[in-house]
Amino acid sequence: MDQLPALPQVVQLSDGTYVYTSPTGSNLPAVQQHVGQPIVQHIHHAPPDRTVQRIALGSGVGAGAVAAGVYFGPLLVGVLTAMAANLALLALLAAVCAWGVVTVVRSIGGPDGKSAAKTLTRARRRG
Q1: 52 near 63, Cβ under 8 Å?
Q2: Whole-number Cα distances in Å, 101 to 107, 115, 120, 125, 126
Q3: Do 55 and 65 touch, CB atoms closer than 8 A?
Q4: What is the dihedral of CA 104, 105, 106, 107, to 10 degrees?
Q5: How far is CA 98 from the centre of its chain?
Q6: Backbone torsions φ then ψ of 53, nearest 5 degrees
Q7: Could you read off the pLDDT tens digit of each residue along the chain, which spans 127 residues?
Q8: Is 105 helix (H, G, I), strand (E, B) or coil?
Q9: Three-state DSSP class for 26?
Q10: Most buried in the list 31, 47, 52, 117, measured by CB within 10 Å?
Q11: Which conformational region is residue 49 in: left (phi greater than 0), alpha (psi within -120 to 50 degrees), or beta?
């Protein structure tokens, strides 16, 4: 069976820096030490967008209000969407009922029914 190649090892030098040592004895380049705040890179996705939170906190709104907005914002959108869907369904139901009443009055009523249906149709167009 073939053996896997030996992996490089990390060694700390006397000045505190770290270097890789290869199994062949030659030194690989030293690991660069970063001084200051660490850099966080978001790989494979966009960085988080906190524009709204920054604006709210910058205007003096507390962190609790920002957290509440983040939590309740999508809930509010969901509730308003559900209300709009319910109202649309009720409007459709009212239109179907009005159409049914006009159709029944026209078919059953004779000449009086037809004039009543025309009056109802005119009132619906105006209102």
Answers
A1: no
A2: 10, 14, 10, 15, 18
A3: no
A4: 50
A5: 39
A6: -65, -40
A7: 466 666 667 777 788 777 777 666 555 555 566 567 766 665 565 555 666 666 666 666 677 777 777 788 888 889 999 999 999 999 999 999 999 988 887 788 777 777 877 887 888 777 5
A8: helix
A9: coil
A10: 117
A11: beta
